[in-house]
Amino acid sequence: MNIDIVGRGRAGGSFARALRHAGHDVNALGRDEQPRSRTALILIATPDDTIASVARSLAPSSAVVAHVSGATGVDALTPHVRVGSLHPLAVLPDVDRGVERLVGATYAVEGDELLDDIVRSLSGHVVRIAPEQRALYHATAVTASNHVVALLAEVEALAASLGLPATTFSSLTEQVVADVRSIGVTRALTGPAARGDHRTLEAHRQALPPQHEAPYNALSAVAARVAGAPAWNS
């Protein structure tokens, strides 16, 4: 299939290489370039706030015009007739990792059914999200990825205050991720919030540097809710 990708950043570069490996004829474009006249799919892989303007700049054609954003609806692609979106549930920090992770990934697909064929060519799995649930879907994806990085940044900072490398605590993270996969979140949860041990939680709060209190309090409240334990009034 002839595919033109607008955007040469991490997402665009990852899709371009992955789709070439899958046997497609892929042409990578800058934002000001026009697609080929006989392309089947124009895939916009630019920042979210530029998708609508890029779509408007494209000449009318019979091609499917789609984007790879998780947060943006297909209404940003007007006035094109055949439109859609495919958002990979994969972290793309660079092109080399992105190419590997796009193959076999789960994709949230909206719009034209041609995109289902694209996902299949990448050995991926399609889920379809109702347009009114797109923001909730994307918030879930952000929580599953970006917020985990933010949490580990908290671990790194707290470990540094003890004079220890963050890797000292890495085995705990690896163990709980394995436990969640094998026995589920409720059984995997241990610790003072799950036990309703408010004395220990208060001791933690007193020991924490001030900038780390709010994240700790919020996460302890979530842990208590998951465990069905009494709420901790911090």
How would you describe this protein?
The chain is an alpha/beta fold and 234 residues long. It has two domains: 2-131, NAD(P)-binding Rossmann-like Domain (Rossmann fold), CATH 3.40.50; 144-227, Orthogonal Bundle (N-(1-d-carboxylethyl)-l-norvaline Dehydrogenase, domain 2). The chain is built from eleven helices and seven strands. The protein has a seven-stranded mixed sheet with strand order 2-1-3-4-5-6-7, sandwiched between helices. Strand 3, helix 2 and strand 4 form a beta-alpha-beta unit. Helix 1 (10-21) packs across helix 3 (95-102). The longest helix has 16 residues, at 146-161. The radius of gyration is 22 Å and the shape is elongated. The termini are far apart. The relative contact order is 0.09.
